[in-house]
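DM between two lab members

TW: hey, do you still have the Prefoldin subunit 2 entry open?
JB: yeah, one sec
JB: this one, 145 aa:
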Amino acid sequence: MAESDRNEPINEQVVANMYTAMRSELNQIYSKITELEMDVSEHSLVINAIQPLDPSRRCYRMIGGVLVERTIKEVLPAVQRNKEGIEEVIVRLNEAAERKKKEIADFEAKYKIRIRKSDSEVKDDTNKKEGSSQGVLVGPAGSSE
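TW: and the structure you got?
JB:
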């Protein structure tokens, strides 16, 4: 790959494959960010639920697939640390996504890649029209008896 980066790619198909791979990586980063944001919101719900309770009260926490009995005083700081750690990972992933977007933009500029949104929108519109005109097929009225 390093040698092909110095030289021009062999053909358009190689450029298209590289571009597709880069877009796929960006989509994977965004899906991971979404997943982690959901984890942060779940951690927040747990923190808000147990924070006002008595610190000596028993609670259960899942650790590596094992349910462990602890007190709220022990669990609350651990859940807060986990939430903060996940938020840090989200920040790093957002930075990686920005770098990848810049890399894709540079790649698009270098190889003059343009996305044909108008063609795909036209195809989407025709598919929507076809889909909306479709109905339920019903046999003759007399055959249902």
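TW: got it. The longest helix spans residues 72-111. The two ends are 69 Å apart (CA to CA).
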